């Protein structure tokens, strides 16, 4: 019988799961070639602006495989609706039977994206972070900061967004979580003060420029998950000492690496996958003054591993 789990049921078991560890293992398995990940399925809508992604795949030898459908419609809050929705379908890899429907409403997508940011910071950020800069003011801006608490003791945060009032509200929310959070007057001011910068917007024009970023800074970009979106100037990736992808094939088609390669600012042979750095830290940051950039477009391996963890936690009885 197919198990159907509501968002509330999924939320109730999340304290049993460490999404950062789950996503780290997903990246490791993916870069080892243990996960089959077909190209992303996608629908983009102009009016109202929105998108739908289908990400799916299977881990070699697993008993199950997963299909994730997630939507983002960014005018929804004006209608009194959340901007995200989604579902994860878990099938038996032995019989093809649908074993579980996770009605997560986009929760797992948001959590695995934030966890990926924490994994990137764990392996690439400088050893001493004085301030975290968050670009954006939505759900992901808040989640990125929240999950970073597990990988850095830094609690000083600057928030920038094009809408200053939303940035101020985001800073207030982060302050309620125990951060010393303030709104930054500009992207340049944020970058000048931050050793770790996370970009979380749906921008289609770069706003974080090469000249903004100081030596020793790590940048994690999570907003650019379609071919049209971009937050980082191509020259920033060209200037970086280390450029990291969650999936090299996927980032050559979408995300910041896609734009930097197309602009001639970056050669694909300079890019290393985060899973390869997890396996061999010597391929990551080797000096405090290096600039590192991680382009995280969201890989199906993350969805598969997190869905499996949720299904295990939902299962009644010991184990």
Detailed description of the structure:
With 319 residues, the protein is α/β, with parallel strands linked by helices. It has eleven helices and 15 strands. The chain has helices spanning 7-13, 19-31, 107-124, 139-148, 164-176, 187-193, 234-239, 248-251, 256-262, 274-279, 300-314, and strands spanning 3-5, 35-36, 41-45, 50-59, 64-73, 84-92, 98-102, 132-135, 156-160, 180-183, 196-199, 218-221, 242-245, 271-273, 292-295. The strands form two sheets. An eight-stranded parallel sheet has the order 10-9-8-11-12-15-13-14, with helices on both faces. Strand 8 (132-135), helix 4 (139-148) and strand 9 form a beta-alpha-beta unit. Helix 3 (107-124) crosses helix 11 (300-314). The radius of gyration is 19 Å and the shape is globular. The two termini are 20 Å apart. The model has no long low-confidence stretch (mean pLDDT 97).
